[in-house]
Amino acid sequence: MAKLAIVLAIPLALLATVASLGVMVVDVRESGPDGHHIVVPVPLVLAQTALAVAPTFAHEKDLRIHDAEALRHLPLARQVLQALAEAPDGELVRVEEREEQVVITKQGRSLHVQVHGGHGEDVDVNVPLQLALQALPDAEGNIRTTALAAALGGVRFTDLVKVHDGNEQVHVYVW
Amino acid sequence: MRKSVVVGGLGLALLAAAFAAAQTTNTAWLHVRVDEAQKASKVRVNLPMTVIDAVLKATPELIEEHGKVNLGDHHGMKLADCRRAWKQLMAAGDAEFVTVESEDENVRVQRKGDLVIVYADHKGHPARPAKAEAEAGKAETAAKDKGPGEVRVEVPVSLVDALLSGEGEEVNLQAALAEVQKRRGDIVRVHDTDADVRIWIDEQNSPGPSTR
Question: Is residue A15 part of a domain?
């Protein structure tokens, strides 16, 4: 009996450890009686480890932005993201047309983009500003994988993407 | 002793709340509102001035490059002449500066308080006989298609002052931007038959109800 408890406790403890470190879940639901429901949980620690070791395995040029035009605008992008992160919450953009509505709001440490289409499609995207800042390459164009890996830990309990187009629902969240 | 600790704590909490409230209300926001009734389209942009500041600071070359726009005398009047005329007009106080009446449109420019208001009403063209229509040149077609309409633009006097504060034949965009940043209230209002545009700055993070 004790042996069984130990055997069961090990995977449970592992599962609890992985869950406590965070899991990114991709949940896809198709409508209709034959619709599939696919759930792909990816432990955050796995993504973080992959990002952290990426510079060891990947070629240096693969982790660098080479486009001079993009590099020229990086400081501006960084300044804007930083200013937005420090700015008070509020609705930044609202575009309403007959069949479409787009709303971008700043809520806490995220930008929230909502698109409502005329054919019943809804898209909700949350962009954690800290993650976006860390995702920006440095002045030389190097992608800072270690910083990105660290920032992933800060987006727990966040709905990143929700898409509903009438036939299909996609939900990506970090738990 | 306990009473003074409670009172002190309460005071500190009130101070912190007041500071937090001041932080949220003192942030200036630039608002842009565009309403197009025919297209049932509404656009609202609300940006904290801190973000605009950050953009301007991150792109000093933008101001350096475009901060002073050289107008030259392409429009038949040198900017130095405009500057002199503007000074004299300002000294005259509230008045109607320009009135142009033509077959196609009427234009009026006047100062009212701290605003310069430009009214333009385009009369459009009534239907003409086929022969006259054929004789009309291609250049006229665009104007004819526009139809009747009216435009009303309101610009603060201080903004024009800032624009004209440069030297020689250059408008001072940098001074205009600085003026915009300290201003609270309307910067530009355009009322047209197709669209209403309003750009203003206040300390609210979402636009209030229309005042028009």
Answer: no
Tell me whether B25 touches chain A (CB under 8 Å): no
Q: Could A88 and B48 be called an inter-chain contact, meaning their C-beta atoms sit closer than 8 Å?
A: yes
pLDDT (tens digit, 9 = 90+) per residue, B72-99?
555 556 778 888 888 888 888 888 888 8
Per the CB < 8 A criterion, the answer to whether B201 and B30 are in contact is yes
| A98 contacts B51? CB cut-off 8 A | no
- What stretch of H or E contains A149? helix A145-152
Query: Is residue A43 a part of any domain in this protein?
Result: yes
Q: Distance between CA atoms of B88 and B197, rounded to whole angstroms?
A: 30
Q: A137, A64 in Cβ contact below 8 A?
A: yes
* A42 Cβ contact partners less than 8 Å away, ≥ 6 residues apart: A23, A24, A25, A26
Classify residue A87: in a domain, yes or no.
Answer: yes
Secondary structure class of B107 (helix, strand, coil)? strand
Q: What is the pLDDT averaged over residues A92-106?
A: 94
Query: Is residue B141 situated within a structural domain?
Result: yes
Which among A72, A97, A107, A133 is the top mutation candidate for probing chain B, defined by the most B β-carbons within 10 Å of its own β-carbon? Answer: A97
Range of the domain at A90: 22-174
Beta-strand (E) ranges in A108-167? 110-116, 122-128, 158-164
Query: Does B169 map to a domain?
Result: yes
The complex's ipTM? 0.78
C-beta atoms of A79 and B54 within 8 A: yes
Q: Is residue B4 part of a domain?
A: no
Do residue B41 and residue A96 have CB atoms under 8 angstroms apart? yes
From chain A, the residues in CB contact with B206 under 8 A are: 90-91
Query: Would you call B53 an interface residue with chain A, using a CB distance cutoff of 8 Å?
Result: yes
Is A5 within the bounds of a domain?
Answer: no
- Give pLDDT tens digits for B45-75: 999 988 888 887 777 666 655 555 555 555 5
Residue B118 domain-assigned (yes or no): yes
Count the domains in chain A: 1
Range of the domain at B100: 28-202
Overall number of domains in chain B: 1
Which residues in chain A are closer than 8 Å to B42, comparing Cβ atoms? 94-97
Show the tokens assigned to A136. Answer: 């920006």
Nearest CA in chain B to A96: B42
Q: Does B20 touch chain A if contact means CB atoms closer than 8 Å?
A: no
